[in-house]
Each structure stands twice: as structure tokens, then as C-alpha cells.
Amino acid sequence: MRRLLLFSVLLLLAVPMVNAVEVDVLLSERHRPHVEAVQAIQQGLRADDVRLFSGVENGDISEEVAQLQRIVERKPDLLIVVGEDALQAALQEDIRIPVLSVMSMTIRAKLQQRIPLTGIDLRPAPQMVADELSRLLAPGAMVLSYYNPEYSGDYVKEAAELFKKRGLLLAARAWPEGDIWTEMNNQMKGADCYWMQMEYKSVAPDTLRLLFALAKKGKTLVGLSEKYVRAGALLAWTPDVHQIGQQAAVMANRILAGAVAAGIPLEHPAHMRLSIRTPDSVVRGRE
């Protein structure tokens, strides 16, 4: 009788272990925004076991790949990749575990066809940009923007349609292979505004020097974050890392509840701080 009772107790204890929800997180613990985002995710995540694996986030994904191989062996219910290197490693390894990506500059809907992926696109929603520029620019104003079609093609296409509905023209062009400085300078002669895309070429030193020089001459510049406004851009949206983490936790819980990761559309940050440069050079932010 005592053995039967002990066996029954062991069975009851085994149930939660079998059904335990496991989430693995790959991040760079040296990168403060990654740590802040993960802390917010953990606060809202409905999981029994959350384990952190650290990469480097230096452009070399070998450390992230090594960590992913350990993660795959564990077979968690969800993998959260934080940052660019972690996402690229997951794509290279052709991960079959449901993946949620945050804090990456290159996540896009087409990647959902490669691995079971969803996540948060750090760029402001196109409608948010179109609405604000329609208030700041005169009707018929031309907005120039260079972009990589692979990374930003769908985003720019959606934005162009929204700009048109608001009486603005978005002149979006693929990055030239030759002299970016000369072409951009020539194109800006007929444009009223330049909208920076969240791409690596946008922040190349030569590109930035030209854009801020044009801003000093009176051209409207839409930057990538508040620091660009402080440097001379007219406006920019800055995502809140803590709120991105909270938003990611909601998406993660949907996946853990049974939703297919690749079936969840990518989201833009639900809350972003808009910073606008005023005539007295004071940067004022609002959400």
C-alpha cells in the first residue's frame, strides 16, 4: 500500500515536468538594450523554464551558431533571438523551433518563408511616418529615400501608397552602386525631404555627412532616432526598449499557446517616441 501511494505521488509530480513550457533566449549580455529587452520579456512571459544563452553581437556569428546548436539539442518550445547576429545565426542554421526576433534591423516578412519566425520590426509603421510628414510638409512635397529592395522593398512600397493618399510623393530609389554622394546630392536638389531607412548604408559616414550638410541648408531630414534630431534632423522616432520587450512577451505567449509563429504578422513597435526639432533647437518628444 505504501509503495502504491508513493508511486501515485511520483506520477502527480511528473505531470508538470512533462508539460513544462521551455523558452530559450539568445542575446548579447554585453549589449545593454538586449538585456533591458529580455528583462521586460521575462516579466510577461508565461513559461516554466527560461534559459539565457549569450552571444557577442560583433558581426561574427560563430558564437551565436555554437549556442544555437546547444539550444536545438534542448528542443525548447520557443526560441527568442535578440539582435542582428542571433537572427542571422538562426537563419543560417535553418532553425525549426518557433522563433521570435527582437532588436534586429533586417527582419522582414519574406524571412517567415524560411524558418518558423515572427518578431518586431524596429521601424515606425509606414502610416505613422506618412501621417506626421503630411502635417509638417506642404502638399505635393517630394520625399527622397534610398533603400535596399531586399530589406525594405515591401516597407517602402506600403509607405509610398500612404504618402500618395496624403498628397505627398515618395521618391524611393535603390542604393546606387557607384558614387552615392554625387547621386544623392543631385537628387536632393529637387526634393524637399530625405527619409533615412533603417539600413547600414544609411549610417555610412559619408552618407551621414552629406545628409546633415543638406539639413543645415534647409532640407528636411527624417532620422533614425532622437540622437539624429540632436545632430540636425527635423524629426525621428525612437523605440522604447522596455515596451518592445513587453510587446514581444505578448507575441511569445501567443506562440506558446499554440499560434504558428510564421502565421503571426510582423509588428512595428506599438509605442515610439517622436522627437521634433523646434526653431529654438529644443528637442521635444511625444508618443
Describe the structure.
This is ABC transporter substrate-binding protein. It comes from Mariprofundus erugo. Keywords: Signal. This protein is α/β, with parallel strands linked by helices and 287 residues long. It has two domains: 2-121 and 241-270, Response regulator (Rossmann fold), CATH 3.40.50; 126-238 and 273-286, Rossmann fold, CATH 3.40.50.2300. It is 43% helix and 20% strand. It contains ten helices and twelve strands. Strands 2-1-3-4-5 form a five-stranded parallel sheet, sandwiched between helices. Strands 7-6-8-9 form a four-stranded parallel sheet, sandwiched between helices. α6 (149-165) links the parallel β6 and β7 (169-174). α3 packs across α4 and α5 (126-136) crosses α6 (149-165). The protein is elongated.
What's the helix and strand layout?
Blueprint: H1 2-18, E1 22-27, H2 32-44, E2 49-54, H3 62-74, E3 78-82, H4 84-92, E4 99-102, E5 117-119, H5 126-136, E6 142-147, H6 149-165, E7 169-174, H7 180-188, E8 193-195, H8 205-216, E9 220-222, H9 226-231, E10 235-239, H10 241-256, E11 272-277, E12 283-286
Parallel strand pairs: 1-2, 1-3, 3-4, 4-5, 6-7, 6-8, 8-9
Antiparallel strand pairs: 10-11, 11-12
Features:
single chain; 287 residues; alpha/beta; Rossmann fold; 2 domains; five-stranded parallel β-sheet; four-stranded parallel β-sheet; 10 helices; 12 strands; 43% helix; elongated; signal; ABC transporter substrate-binding protein
In short:
This protein has 287 residues and is an alpha/beta fold.
Main beta sheet: 5 strands, parallel
- Please report the total strand number as a whole number: 12
Annotated CATH topology of the largest domain: Rossmann fold
Q: How are strands sequenced across the largest beta sheet? A: 2-1-3-4-5
Give the CATH class of the largest domain. Answer: Alpha Beta
Organism: Mariprofundus erugo
Keywords: Signal
Signal peptide: 1-20
Protein name: ABC transporter substrate-binding protein
